[in-house]
Predict the structure.
Amino acid sequence: MARVSDAHLAARRHSILVAATKCFSQKGIAAATMAEIAAEAGISPGAIYRYFENKDDLARWCMDESAEAIKHAWENPTSAEMSFVELSRLTFAELNKPEVAIDTQLFLERALIFVRDEHAGALGEFQAEFEKVRAGILFLMERQFGPAPEDVDVQAIAEALYGFYWGARVMKLLMPEVNTDAQVEALHSLIGHALDKTCGK
Amino acid sequence: MARVSDAHLAARRHSILVAATKCFSQKGIAAATMAEIAAEAGISPGAIYRYFENKDDLARWCMDESAEAIKHAWENPTSAEMSFVELSRLTFAELNKPEVAIDTQLFLERALIFVRDEHAGALGEFQAEFEKVRAGILFLMERQFGPAPEDVDVQAIAEALYGFYWGARVMKLLMPEVNTDAQVEALHSLIGHALDKTCGK
Amino acid sequence: MARVSDAHLAARRHSILVAATKCFSQKGIAAATMAEIAAEAGISPGAIYRYFENKDDLARWCMDESAEAIKHAWENPTSAEMSFVELSRLTFAELNKPEVAIDTQLFLERALIFVRDEHAGALGEFQAEFEKVRAGILFLMERQFGPAPEDVDVQAIAEALYGFYWGARVMKLLMPEVNTDAQVEALHSLIGHALDKTCGK
Amino acid sequence: MARVSDAHLAARRHSILVAATKCFSQKGIAAATMAEIAAEAGISPGAIYRYFENKDDLARWCMDESAEAIKHAWENPTSAEMSFVELSRLTFAELNKPEVAIDTQLFLERALIFVRDEHAGALGEFQAEFEKVRAGILFLMERQFGPAPEDVDVQAIAEALYGFYWGARVMKLLMPEVNTDAQVEALHSLIGHALDKTCGK
DNA sequence: TATGAATGAGGTTTCATTCAT
DNA sequence: CATGAATGAAACCTCATTCAT
């Protein structure tokens, strides 16, 4: 079976990641076994080790993939043409897809691991992401609503929105029926009340 | 024929829970070993089994304790005399204590376990808690601000506030330096703008 | 089975060493399995790990024990009262015991390991032993035969005797029937011819 | 239908043997992997199996090669014209070459394997070699020194010399700096004292 | 009742060997 | 013929749990 194309190898590697992500999210990283993952991927346990150093490495790739997917949720390619409200709506609408639960789960496992290990680098990366998103939200809010009044802490609002995003992920995980869209609309409405120049007239 | 007083038994049981909670949050439930917990509690591994069925049972008690602690955060005993804003402030101020991270961690582990098992009972309990808190927030908001205008979805605001609470826990876990208090104040301010009758004048 | 006496623990540890030494010499260190050793020792595989870090550690203890036994062969407690020839005779007579083959085997495995790893410390230890034995042989030869003539390199003879000792071990390993005692006598005779003042008269 | 010349096949087979001998002596036969050997030989793991049955077979060829090389050390082509002392000197001088360590290592691994398996054939072969060398030494000693005196056990001296040869190999393995040449000279001197007719005059 | 030595199932990982390409 | 991806048996080791003391 020698001299397999790179595409084949990449596909095999990807199929292992998919299988592992499924098993890890279904049973938890610690409880999922390499044998299960191999079976799910339709290969032998030993084969996994040609593509990943060990279970930890495999888990890290899965978790990183989820973290990356979550990051990208905030980097909508069409954002340039969208208003703050539209983009926010779109970002939260994503959470209604059932498959985002898997990303949330793996992200939370990752977060727990990093917190336990006091993994400064990883936590710093999260902070950087936090700051990038905050800046993005700030920019969009100002573009839509113009400069904020003195008495409104736009920065804190942006941070709160990002915090609410994580809360929404956790709530959707535990209660898929919860209507986060309505909550977002309510927040938009509050923000509109406070920032929109039409308010108060 | 009990040679040992009930109080002693309860104390020992509690010391095991404390030790287990420490180990579980430090290493994760799966990675923490019964031997470590026993050492931390200053007893022998075998002794744990006189107080808890098995490791799962012990973990469940720890996680439930954390979940209970989180629940109580919203049920401030002095709430009767407090305004919505004061109570909210107090509840979020709790999150600045470093030790709440442990509760957050164990709660998240619990959440992940329940989601994996599709543990309907446990998820229902979370939903019940969610609804109770939402009702409480609604009640307090109405008591403070009076009936909401037609165009403000107070229910969704209450839900969003609860969601933000979970987001704040996650953010504090990953970035202890984040200023959730300022974010809460910003949200209060937004809510005030929308609901307070003084607005617009 | 708690609170077992130290004597019991030491005995158990020793029985593991005995079982491991048997298995290691019978199958080689690499080929012997922990399960076999456990079975030989009449315990479960897991129990071994309460007494030894891991297989390597266990093997090291076995090999060190063999090396120690070989060292002691040259340190006969009654040596003070014995002549060089008597002590030499006794030391080589030991090699007729079939059980010394085990020590030879484990020592050789150890030597191979140390050579592969270029384990300077261990090789230095062997050198120290070499020098100690050489000095001992020199001392005994001088005590028995007096100062050596100018043209006889007593030091080299002592070294050669030690080298021959190792050769004898290897030969006995491969050909247990070989008569090393006669060889020793022949060497003694040669040494006598050269050193004994009666020679040449 | 052979596409590849026999010479090419033989060359490749030889290169595998060289690579395997290097790996086996560096890491031990058990620890060296077929993949490593293949990499060292610059071919694929699968290709080895076209030239050797399996790892054991390959190891046997390597070990036999070493054993053969050691045998040949005693069968110096120019021996016919040499005295006992000259040939002995030459044979031991070989041990100063660092590369003989590899042969010693592999020979010892082979010896350990044969002893473990009680491999009668192989051990018999060693005995035959032993007897051939003994006879050779005897012949040479008689040719050089003439018939031995009654009181000198020339046979035992020959055996002892062969035993010393193995000891010298082991010592050189563990202490490359040891001066085996001087030891040999000392033994020659002893033998000369005892056998040379000039002695005593 | 507490102890902690022992168990042994089960997990991860390695690697000799095979065989489709 | 060579390749090297895949297999899968088997090894090491861990640790929740038990139970003799």
Notes: DSSP finds nine helices and no strands in chain C. The interface with chain B takes residues 2 of chain C (CB under 8 Å).
